[in-house]
Design goal:
Helices cover 45% and strands 24% of the residues. By secondary structure, the protein is an alpha+beta fold. The protein has 2 domains: 31 residues, no CATH class; 89 residues, Double Stranded RNA Binding Domain, CATH 3.30.160. Helix 3 packs across helix 5 and helix 3 packs across helix 6.
Length: 131
């Protein structure tokens, strides 16, 4: 079993991978996990509707939001991402094992680490789509 010194070294010096029976456990600090997730980004297709509103459809997770303008749609999509991430994490045993949802894991943790709808919204890259 690791001592407090081992844990402190692991967190401050380098992540550690431990094998426990048939499972592997990664012990690290949050900065390491954030670095792992840095390559993941949110992108959304932007569609301007006939009524002048804007719809954003997230590419990484099946989420779609409509707002009166770009800022409103982005804010709503960011809130939907964070809500989805919290729901996913709260029932991780279910969602994390679903084959069609497993690819969402890095995006879920990215949202949880950002933890703020403004930061999430600022990170969404919008791409032109068809109206």
């Amino acid at each position: 079993m690791e001592t407090a010194t081992d844990v402190a070294t692991t967190v401050r010096v380098q992540p550690q991978l431990f094998k426990r029976t048939s499972d592997y456990v990664l012990l690290s600090n949050l900065n390491f996990i954030k670095a792992l997730l840095a390559g993941y980004s949110y992108s959304a297709v932007r569609m301007e509707e006939e009524d002048g509103s804007v719809t954003l459809a997230l590419n990484e997770i099946d989420l779609v939001e409509n707002g009166k303008d770009d800022n409103d749609a982005r804010a709503k999509l960011a809130a939907a991402i964070l809500e989805y991430a919290e729901d996913y994490y709260n029932d991780f045993a279910y969602w994390g094992s679903a084959p069609n949802r497993r690819s969402h894991i890095p995006y879920v943790f990215k949202a949880l680490f950002l933890g703020d709808t403004r930061k999430i919204g600022d990170s969404i890259q919008c791409l032109a789509g068809k109206s």
